[in-house]
């Protein structure tokens, strides 16, 4: 990955804010997208991710702040003058134009010669695996093929930045996974700079170099998929990017190794990922796959007892849904090989344990 120097930044947002009346949709967002990077905006509906993308595209005007593309302020430039590629969820293809006509449209607007347009259209359709589809119309294509045409149209003029707003949301799961791989290949082969919006956590984990997690108009945390999954700093990030168990409490001790959190379910050791201090409210977050079932006599630094309320068969794994005596919901995920040797049923009381290095003390944000 490239460095964070100014020469490696293709897109910069500085103090970008969007207000509708008394509603703050985006609140002082600062970020830098590196050249050749795939950066994903992840968050629930209404979190500000699409509004931020729309301001970069020129479809919305910021209430405050600056947006720079390759060091130059976009300011009041309309979308068609920003030289940015855009792919929407619903394709937005021209139904009266052929596939070749749709892909050629941005080149015609730039007044390229006919021979050059034909060559670039052919190259773009080959890139997305549709070299023989130029004479067809959008109505003659499947959803996946239409999305490939939309990709070709957005890339054909080689924009410095490609924006993608929930581009796979209308596709079924299998086709969506195929298109994820296709977009990743194009990103790698063309070294494109991509700003991608999704609410699908798995999509973000699979495709992104970095992820910005949005919540209530703010970026709660930004980093690689592994950083966000392994070391979230807030309860919201831990809960939105994957599943987590949360044990509430208060910080009672802090040292270089981590911290102690005392709460209704017990005293737990955890990494102090969020930099909390003694006396702060905290939530200990631990992923379901990091919990272990303890046999009689086994002990861990962190332990809790819970009663099984549901046993869910997931094929390659089993999910046990439980509740502690204090009413805390707990989920454990166990791979099928280990699960098949057990006979766990609803109503069973289980002892669970985990090591401190696999738990994080988080700032409560839910």
Produce the secondary structure layout.
Layout: E1 9-20, E2 23-34, E3 38-42, H1 49-57, E4 64-69, E5 72-73, E6 85-87, H2 99-109, H3 114-127, H4 143-155, E7 162-165, H5 173-190, E8 194-198, H6 201-207, E9 210-215, E10 218-223, H7 225-230, H8 235-240, E11 245-255, E12 258-263, E13 266-270, E14 281-286, E15 292-293, E16 302-313, E17 317-323, E18 329-335, H9 336-339, E19 349-354, E20 359-362
Parallel strand pairs: 3-8, 3-9, 6-7, 7-8
Antiparallel strand pairs: 1-2, 1-4, 4-5, 9-10, 11-12, 11-14, 12-13, 14-20, 15-19, 16-17, 16-19, 17-18
Model description:
The protein has 366 residues and is of the alpha+beta class. The chain is 24% helix and 35% strand. It has nine helices and 20 strands. The protein has helices at 49-57, 99-109, 114-127, 143-155, 173-190, 201-207, 225-230, 235-240, 336-339; strands spanning 9-20, 23-34, 38-42, 64-69, 72-73, 85-87, 162-165, 194-198, 210-215, 218-223, 245-255, 258-263, 266-270, 281-286, 292-293, 302-313, 317-323, 329-335, 349-354, 359-362. The chain has a six-stranded mixed sheet, sandwiched between helices. A five-stranded antiparallel sheet has the order 13-12-11-14-20. A hairpin with a 2-residue loop joins strand 1 (9-20) and strand 2 (23-34). It is elongated.
């Amino acid at each position: 990955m490239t460095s964070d120097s100014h020469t490696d930044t293709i897109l910069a947002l500085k103090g970008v804010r969007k207000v509708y009346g008394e509603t703050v949709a985006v609140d002082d967002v600062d970020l830098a997208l590196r050249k050749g990077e795939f950066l994903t905006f992840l968050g629930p509906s209404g979190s500000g991710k699409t509004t931020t993308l729309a301001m970069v595209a020129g479809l919305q005007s910021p209430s405050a702040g600056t947006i720079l593309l390759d060091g130059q302020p976009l300011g009041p430039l309309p979308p068609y003058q920003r030289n940015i590629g855009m792919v929407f969820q619903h394709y937005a293809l021209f139904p009266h134009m052929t596939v070749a006509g749709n892909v050629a449209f941005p080149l015609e607007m730039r007044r390229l010669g006919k021979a050059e347009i034909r060559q670039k259209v052919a190259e773009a359709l080959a890139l997305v695996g549709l070299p023989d589809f130029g004479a067809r119309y959008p109505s003659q294509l499947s959803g996946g093929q239409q999305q490939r045409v939309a990709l070709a149209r957005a890339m054909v003029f080689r924009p410095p930045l490609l924006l993608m707003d929930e581009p796979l949301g209308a596709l079924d799961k299998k086709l969506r996974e195929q298109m994820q791989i296709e977009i990743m290949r194009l990103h790698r082969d063309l070294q494109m700079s991509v700003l991608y919006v999704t609410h699908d956590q798995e999509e973000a984990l699979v495709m992104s170099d970095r992820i910005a997690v949005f919540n209530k108009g703010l970026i709660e945390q930004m980093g690689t998929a592994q950083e966000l999954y392994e070391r979230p700093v807030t309860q919201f990030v831990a809960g939105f990017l994957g599943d987590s168990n949360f044990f509430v409490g208060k910080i009672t001790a802090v040292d270089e190794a981590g911290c102690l959190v005392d709460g209704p379910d017990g005293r737990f050791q955890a990494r102090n990922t969020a930099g909390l201090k003694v006396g702060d409210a905290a939530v200990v977050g631990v992923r379901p796959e990091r919990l272990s079932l303890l046999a009689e006599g086994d002990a861990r630094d962190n332990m809790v007892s819970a009663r099984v309320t549901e046993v869910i068969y997931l094929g390659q794994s089993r999910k046990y849904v439980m509740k502690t005596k204090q009413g805390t919901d707990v989920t454990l995920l166990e791979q099928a090989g280990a699960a098949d040797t057990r006979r766990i049923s609803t109503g069973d009381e289980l002892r669970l344990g985990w090591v401190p290095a696999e738990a994080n003390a988080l700032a409560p944000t839910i």
